[in-house]
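I hope you will forgive my troubling you with a question about protein structure. You will find the record immediately after this paragraph.
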Amino acid sequence: MDMYELLQKDPKVWDIFTLKEEYSSPLRDQYDRIPCHASSNRNIFEPSVSKYLIDQGLHAEYPEDKPFAVCLTHDIDVVYTSLVPKVVSSVGHLKQGSISEFMRSVAQMRSKKRPLWNFNDILKLEEQYDAKSSFYFMAENSGERDYAYEIEDLEPVLGDIVDRGSEIGLHGGHTSYFHTEELKSKKKRIEKLLNNNISGYRNHYLRFNVPETWEYLHAAGFLYDTTIGYADCIGFRNGMCHPFKPFNLRSGKPLEILEIPLIIMEDTFERYMGLDTRRAWEMSKKLIDTVMQYNGVLTLLWHNYSFTGDKRKFYEKILTYCAEKQAWMTSGEHILSWWKHHVRI
């Protein structure tokens, strides 16, 4: 009996796993997302579907007998400081009649200072824990809603990340999740810089339509996605703490793409849940322990703009705790490869 047959034995579990209610739910936020409070699954902090599969005999194994895995990921929304303060400052200099100061400010704007060009810093931190990670870069065109940088400007950075064993994937823009041709063109744009194929994807703002986006991603040549998680709450959106091949209820067939569900996004704590650092750590620790209990994969999203101050310390605290628990901390493509050859779920 395969996984889908096992899950269909329990209709409630099956409905949670397939995200059945999201097929037609009108309860969406301004970004066309299903919020956590709109779900009938009220036990979001318990991976009920993974638990069911474990009870049915599933056991995931990892390299070197690690008890669980942590998929480290970074969405790269921005790489340059905002130009707005500089523009305001420049106009102010001009009003004051200081042409030289105005020209100096304009020159600074054109210099593309790089306060968020911190990829080496992120890699060095993770390398202290023998960890690898996934960096999802945008490939937006000038004039598009999410345009913040030219991906071609980052070619040396992309090469360095790959050379050091981590992964490059695509971070799709606001409209990518329902547009196959857009996914294809932006994927090819990054692949041209790498001179190699990319496998992984996550959409900006976690925008996603079930099940269509999986179909579009597969058609565009992606092998895995890691968008499925709530923006407004950490936890297990479809009750899974394991990667899985989704099931399309409309076609009645599995989808040929691996989903590595997102469990924790750093922005969720304060922006959506209103948690202070102490409470955020308590909840994170509980989720890590839960994933370990079920031999699962904890997918963590930490944006590159969150590697300063307390947020950087929080990320390192998670790495330290997971290392103490003997977790395999790695990238999405490594999870994909391992799952393909060693686990059947």
